[in-house]
Specification:
Layout lengths: L1 H11 L6 E3 L7 E2 L5 E10 L6 H23 L3 E12 L3 H18 L3 E10 L4 E10 L15 E5 L17 H10 L4 E5 L3 H12 L2 E4 L8 H10 L3 H7 L5 E6 L10 E2 L2 E10 L3 E6 L2 E4 L9
Parallel strand pairs: 4-5, 9-13
Antiparallel strand pairs: 1-2, 3-6, 4-6, 7-10, 7-12, 8-10, 9-12, 11-12, 13-14
Helix pairs in contact: 2-3, 2-4, 6-7
Bound molecules: magnesium ion.
Magnesium ion binds next to helix 2 and strand 8.
Length: 301
C-alpha cells in the first residue's frame, strides 16, 4: 500500500519554494533561512481526540494539522513544512489514509504550508495520527509563554467554551491574526488555548513568574458553551474557563501598547479579560475584591 500511497500523496501535494525536496526521498530538504526554526509535534488518537466513525478521516486530518498550526500561531511563526505519520487500522487502511490526507491537504493549501514527508504503518489498533510542523520566525522574535510582566493586559481571541459541540474539529488556527499582531509588535507573551483558559493562563503565569487577575464578566463566552450548559449542570462561564480545545490565542499585551490593540481582526474579537499581577496564582476580580480562581481545564491524557 505504501508505495502507491506515497506516489499519490506526492502528486497531490503542492510545490512551494520553502521546500527544495519534498515527499519521495529519504529526507526532505528545506530551503535555508536566516530565521529561527519553530518545531512542534502532535499525535491524535481515534477514541480520544476524535471519533473516526462519527467525524470521518477528512475532519480528523484537518484537526491534526489545525492543532499544530495553532501552536505555530501561538509562537508568532509562519508555517513552512509538515511531516505526517499514520498508523492505520488494517481494515480499510488505504481509504482512511487518503481521507486523512485530503483533510490535511485542504488545510495545508489554505495556510500555504508544504506536506514534505511522512510515514505510514498498518496495525491491528485504532487510527493514530502524528504530525510534525516546522515554522519560521525572525531571529529572537518568537512569542513565548515567559514574556508576561505584571501590568500587562491578558487578551483572548474569539469566544471560549463548548468546543466539544464541534469547534474542536472545525476551527481556524489563528495564523493570519497572529501575523497581523506580529506586525503591530505589541505582544509580550502568548500561548494557544488548548487545555482550557484556566490551565493555559496558569501555564503563562508560571513561565512568566507572575500571577493573573481575571475579570470573569469580561470572558467572551461562546454560544456553544451556553448550549452545553443547558444539559451539563455547569455554567456557561465554567465551560469558557474549563473546556479545552478552543484553539484561540491567549496574549499578554503591555499596558502602554493596549491602545494599539484592534477590537477585532478579520471579524475575530480580541478581548482584554484582566491583567498579569506580581502576586502569583490565578485570581478573579469581582465587585467585592479578589478571590482565588481554581485552575480548571481539560488535561489531555
Ligand atoms: Mg500550545
Amino acid at each position: 500500500m505504501e508505495h502507491s500511497f506515497i506516489a499519490w500523496a506526492k502528486q497531490r501535494s503542492s510545490k512551494l519554494p520553502q521546500v527544495k525536496l519534498g515527499i519521495g526521498d529519504d529526507c526532505a530538504l528545506l530551503a535555508g533561512s536566516a530565521e529561527d526554526s519553530v518545531v512542534t509535534t502532535d499525535s491524535l488518537c481515534d477514541g480520544t481526540h476524535f471519533i473516526l466513525s462519527e467525524c470521518g478521516g477528512r475532519r480528523a486530518g484537518r484537526k491534526l494539522l489545525g492543532v499544530s498550526l495553532s501552536d505555530l500561531a501561538s509562537m508568532g511563526a509562519t508555517p513552512v513544512a509538515v511531516f505526517l505519520s499514520l498508523c492505520l487500522p488494517r481494515a480499510a487502511a488505504g481509504d482512511i489514509a487518503s481521507e486523512v490526507f485530503e483533510g490535511v491537504l485542504e488545510m495545508a493549501k489554505e495556510y500555504e504550508v508544504s506536506i514534505a514527508g511522512g510515514d505510514t504503518n498498518v496495525w491491528d489498533g485504532p487510527l493514530v495520527l502524528n504530525l510534525t510542523a516546522i515554522g519560521k520566525v525572525e531571529p529572537d522574535k518568537a512569542w513565548r509563554r515567559s514574556g508576561a510582566k505584571p501590568g500587562d493586559a491578558i487578551v483572548v481571541t474569539g469566544v471560549l467554551g463548548g468546543s466539544i459541540l464541534g469547534k474542536h474539529l472545525d476551527f481556524e488556527p489563528r495564523l493570519r491574526l497572529a501575523k497581523k499582531l506580529k506586525e503591530l509588535d505589541i505582544v509580550s507573551a502568548a500561548t494557544d488555548i488548548s487545555d482550557g483558559l484556566g490551565i493555559d493562563l496558569l501555564n503563562v503565569t508560571v513561565a512568566s513568574r507572575c500571577g493573573a487577575e481575571v475579570h470573569l464578566q469580561k470572558i467572551p463566552i461562546s454560544e456553544a458553551a451556553s448550549r452545553l450548559a443547558q444539559s451539563s449542570g455547569n455554567s456557561p462561564l465554567d465551560h469558557a474557563i474549563g473546556d479545552g480545545e478552543d484553539f484561540e490565542l491567549l496574549l499578554a499585551i503591555p499596558k502602554e501598547k493596549l491602545p494599539l490593540l484592534p477590537a477585532e481582526i478579520d471579524g475575530v474579537p480580541l478581548t482584554p479579560i484582566g491583567e498579569f499581577v506580581s502576586r502569583t496564582g490565578l485570581w478573579s476580580k469581582e465587585r467585592g475584591g479578589v478571590k482565588q480562581l481554581p485552575p480548571r481545564g481539560y488535561v489531555h491524557s
